[in-house]
Write a structure and sequence with these properties.
Largest interface: A-C, 40 and 43 residues
Mean pLDDT of chain A: 84
Order of helices and strands of chain C: HHEHEHEEEHEEHEEEHEHHEHHHHHH
Distance between the termini of chain C: 37 Å
Chains: A mainly alpha (357), B alpha/beta (128), C alpha/beta (467)
Largest sheet of chain A: none
Number of helices of chain A: 19
Structural class of chain C: alpha/beta
Shape of chain C: globular
Oligomer: heterotrimer
Number of helices of chain C: 15
Helix content of chain C: 40-55%
Strand order of the largest sheet of chain C: 3-4-5-2-1-6-11-8-12-7
């Protein structure tokens, strides 16, 4: 009894191994062929793209020459361009996506059940600011999965400024995003988002993380209308992180000096001191240059570095040399001055990679 | 015209697009996807401008910037066009004396910047 | 009487064999399904872009170093080149007696730093902490020698980020390896640990601490191991993935949630396979306390390691793995057939116990019994031959399926010739290599049980896994 069963099993396993071996070879062959087709399609699309940008053809002239089975390649091909370009060239590519039927197909995919394709489609549609994608976003926004949340929130942000409250709501509901990401989301919305953010701040935002993000976004765009609110944060905020962000924004906006900066330079938190002295530097307040001097003897290396840079920016060179020659001057202050002066002499490479600020 | 421009970006499709557009404007452009040979290349040929991304495969663009500024080619004007555009990154790029444009970028604006940078630097090799 | 015993043993082996291969088949099928899903998923996301924009959790890389003055500088440089938005590197100098610390000091311009830390895990005393003037993300901890587990614990104490990555100093991480291996943490908040696939670097071209060209080594010992690794990592781990019962995360590359490591009390110093033991202990803690969690395996090759090229070294490594397995299982006995521990208690733990730990005993005993019965003239030839060919063919089938999985997914070996050679080695390994491994593992087990608790020399190579 047992012998025939064993024989049968051996035979089966033997045949199966053979089949697997053959399918390995087949896969290899198929992969090579697919690769070849893909390369061909990409080369063709690149030629079209270049002539499109050289204004030799129009978007629809390219679009009509894309066969339906190559739409997948087109999606893959366009994505990096759409992520890196804006303005007229971006609009041309969006037109190609529309004319070729890619958008229509992606909208279908965005409604389909397979989650990876859905996320991918939503990301693409979000990038090209397709309004029809908006009703499909809620699942992604509620999802714990970042690779699902991210395309949805980007699609929402890029689409219309009207969606700002929804974006803020989505971010408020979760804690696992970084400021960097937040800024990049708002960067997608353009500078017009700044007044809206200011209104949100003045209405009293409840989440400190969103508040910090808003300040970072104002700094990112260098939005001049933010002066009053920044002043308020620098003077009255109890949250050190917020104060730092406000000072950084002040620096980025190159606003003029006010006494809040001087008091921030005496703050026990070294990051605030460093940010404050940098803000002094960018304000170009030559008459206040002396304020940076005590910080040259600060206990923290970064503060000393920023103070020295500020002195270099605001005071005449001779004054620095006088300080260097003064035997009573602090040793650390002199070290930093010497360092900053050699650096200025062209040896930029001595700067350690900047860690904060 | 006829300035030499070098582009370092690991997204070859984007850099090839830039290259073809810049060539049409009359520049001589070379594209590199791989930054490892960069310093060798700088020593063998003369370039008037480097356009680079900060996010390069396998290397931090900032340390690449630093190694250029440490090398004999520290005068080279550099334009950083990057997806990474946070406050800290912009500050660091400025510390290395390079211009910054964030992606997504408008090509017209990019070409304008290139034009301005090359005009400013036209007597080649400003020594510091 | 003797004959009855012999028949009884024959039947036991037959049943053992069918159960084992049944489980293998089950795991392979699971692995096939899982990998299909994973590859589709992978195609759909552009990793770099998402991490660039700040969806990540900052990470601490812990690299213990003991007497590695020759290689430490290049290892650290390749770590510095890793692609990850925010990470720090902690090199733990575990009381090296050579120039390791001096070399580091010189190369990276180390200066004493006054970094504050909290001793959450007890370790040997720490002499000093250094920061680098050139790379703000690099820190070196100099401590008294205490073994790898102790060094890793010191690293956990000093780390300031929520994720920990333990890395063997001699392994090469793919530049975007960290990105790929931390992905599960972003997809699911319950993930507490991820492991990556480890591949063999021998024969590949490595430049600047990166594998630039994948090729197969000419050394037969290495080729056998390549097949073994493919099998172990592609289906051994992948198959368990969906059951949330991965017992082994290689010490050469693993990422853990710091809070989870602290919850279970860090690495154990009295264990040989501290990396496997930690994972088993995590399962034990979370399962028995009914806390939802996930341990995930990332099938892409993220880490390349140097495999032994000589049989003496290989023998030592395998003995260490076997002892590590023994230690890990022994330390977590409460899991054994514990219904409260779910799949881990009822399936994974017993599987590792019966088939990985005791496998060599059954196998070698089987050969012994066969030779003995040859003497006594008891051999039923058709049965013996059939059984033998089935054993070999099933072995080949498993190797072949793992090759197929590789073909379906990552295709790291560009030459078709290499794949054919690997297939050939998948057949050849059944004649000698497999038996040799079983023999070494049996010896290791005997040595350990009898009490020759040799720790071997402080060999930092290798990782505890079983083939």
């Amino acid at each position: 009894m047992i012998i025939p069963i064993l024989t049968l099993i051996v035979l089966c396993v033997f045949v199966l191994t053979g089949l697997i071996f053959l399918s390995i070879l087949r896969l290899r062959f198929k992969f090579k062929k697919d690769n070849y087709h893909r390369k061909q399609a990409f080369a063709k699309m690149e030629t079209f793209l270049l002539s499109l940008f050289a204004e030799e053809i129009l978007p629809y002239q390219w679009a009509v020459r894309i066969p339906a089975h190559e739409l997948g390649y087109l999606q893959e091909f366009l994505l990096p361009y759409l992520e890196s370009l804006k303005g007229e060239s971006f609009e041309k590519l969006v037109a190609v996506a529309h004319y070729s039927g890619l958008v229509k197909r992606l909208l279908q995919e965005a409604n389909s059940a397979k989650d990876w394709e859905q996320a991918q489609a939503i990301y693409f549609l979000g990038l090209i600011r397709e309004p029809q994608v908006l009703p499909l976003l809620q699942t992604g926004l509620d999802s714990d999965n970042m690779f699902w949340f991210y395309p949805s929130v980007i699609a929402l942000a890029r689409n219309d400024l009207q969606n700002l409250p929804r974006v803020l709501e989505a971010l408020r509901n979760r804690s696992d995003w970084t400021e960097h990401l937040g800024v990049s989301i708002f960067a997608e919305m353009g500078e017009e988002v700044c007044p809206a953010l200011l209104t949100a701040l003045s209405k009293g935002e409840t989440s400190p993380k969103i508040e910090r993000l808003a300040l970072a976004v104002l700094a990112h765009f260098g939005y001049q209308g933010a002066e009053a609110i920044l002043k308020e944060y620098i003077l009255y905020s109890k949250d050190h992180e917020l104060q730092i962000r406000a000072l950084r924004a002040w620096n980025q906006l190159k606003l003029t000096f006010f006494e809040g900066i001087a008091s921030a330079m005496k703050n026990p938190d070294w990051e605030i001191r460093a940010a404050a002295v940098t803000a002094l530097s960018s304000s170009g307040a030559v008459d206040q240059a002396l304020l940076a001097r005590p910080l040259l003897r600060d206990s923290n290396w970064w503060v000393r570095l920023r103070a020295a840079q500020t002195m270099l920016n605001l005071s005449p060179r001779e004054e620095l040399h006088i300080m260097l020659d003064n035997p009573l001057e602090d040793r650390y202050a002199k070290d930093m001055l010497r360092y900053i002066l050699t650096r200025e002499g062209g040896a930029t490479c001595v700067i350690p990679t900047i860690h904060v600020l | 015209m006829g300035h030499n421009i070098l582009i370092v970006d690991d997204n070859i499709y984007f850099s090839r697009l830039l290259a073809s557009q810049l060539t049409r404007l009359g520049y001589v452009v070379r594209v590199m996807a791989n930054h490892e040979e960069l310093l060798n290349l700088l020593s063998s040929d003369h370039y008037d401008l480097l356009i680079m991304e900060l996010l390069l495969n396998g290397q931090d663009g900032l340390s690449l910037l630093r190694s250029i500024r440490c090398s004999p080619y520290s005068y080279l004007p550099i334009l950083v066009v990057s997806h990474r555009s946070g406050y800290v990154d912009q500050l660091r790029v400025a510390e290395f004396d390079a211009h910054f444009l964030s992606k997504p970028v408008d090509l017209t604006q990019l070409f304008k910047t290139v034009l301005i940078m090359l005009k400013k630097e036209s007597p080649v090799g400003i020594s510091l | 009487m003797l004959f009855q015993l012999f028949t009884f043993y024959n039947w036991t082996v037959l049943i053992y064999f069918f159960v084992l291969n049944g489980i293998y088949l089950f795991l392979t099928i699971r692995a096939f399904l899982e990998i299909q899903r994973y590859v589709h998923h992978l195609r759909s996301v552009n990793l770099k872009r998402i991490f660039e924009l700040g969806f990540y959790k900052p990470l601490t890389v812990i690299a213990p170093a003991y007497n590695e003055s020759a290689t430490i500088v290049s290892s650290v440089h390749s770590l510095l080149n890793l692609q990850y938005p925010e990470f720090e590197i902690l090199v733990i100098n575990d009381g090296s007696t050579d120039q390791t610390l001096e070399v580091l000091k010189q190369e990276f311009r180390l200066v004493p730093s006054n970094r504050v830390y909290q001793v959450k895990l007890k370790t040997q005393p720490v002499h000093a902490v250094y920061g680098s003037l050139l790379f703000p993300q690099l820190h070196v901890v100099d401590k008294q020698n205490g073994g790898k587990a102790d060094a890793l614990n010191a690293g956990v104490n000093f780390s300031q980020y929520p994720l920990l990555c333990s890395i063997d100093a001699d392994s090469v991480i793919e530049t975007d390896g960290l990105l790929r291996a931390t992905r599960p943490f972003l997809e699911d908040k319950l993930v507490i640990a991820t492991g990556g696939t480890v591949r063999i670097a021998n024969g590949c071209k490595v430049t600047n601490g990166r594998v630039t060209e994948v090729a197969l080594s000419k050394n037969p010992w290495v080729r056998f191991q390549v097949v073994e690794y493919l099998r172990a990592f592609l289906f051994g781990r992948m198959g368990w993935n969906n059951l949330n019962a991965i017992m082994v995360i290689s010490g050469a590359f693993g990422i853990f949630l710091k809070s989870a490591v602290l919850t279970v009390g860090g690495y154990r110093k009295d264990c040989i396979g501290e990396d496997m033991e930690l994972v088993v202990r995590m399962h034990r803690h979370y399962r028995l306390n009914k806390i939802p969690y996930r341990v995930v395996f990332v099938p892409d090759p993220v880490c390349w390691t140097e495999a032994p090229e000589e049989h003496q070294v290989l023998c030592k490594q395998r003995k260490r793995w076997q002892k590590g397995l023994y230690d890990s299982l022994k330390a977590n006995k409460p899991l054994f057939f514990n219904p409260r521990a779910g799949v881990v208690g009822l399936l994974a733990y017993p599987f590792f116990f019966f088939f990985e730990l005791l496998g060599p005993v059954v196998e070698i005993l089987g050969y012994g019994v066969f030779v003995f019965s040859l003497f006594m003239g008891w051999v039923n030839w058709p049965f013996a031959l059939l059984f033998l060919s089935m054993a070999i063919l099933l072995g080949v089938l498993l190797s072949a399926s793992s090759l197929l999985l590789e073909e379906l997914s990552f295709r790291r070996y560009p030459k078709t010739g290499d794949i054919l050679i690997l297939f050939l080695y998948g057949i050849l390994e059944n004649f000698g290599y497999r038996q040799l491994l079983a023999w070494w593992r049996l010896i290791a087990l005997l040595e350990y049980v009898i009490g020759k608790r040799s720790w071997g020399e402080m060999n930092r190579k290798g990782f505890s896994t079983s083939g």
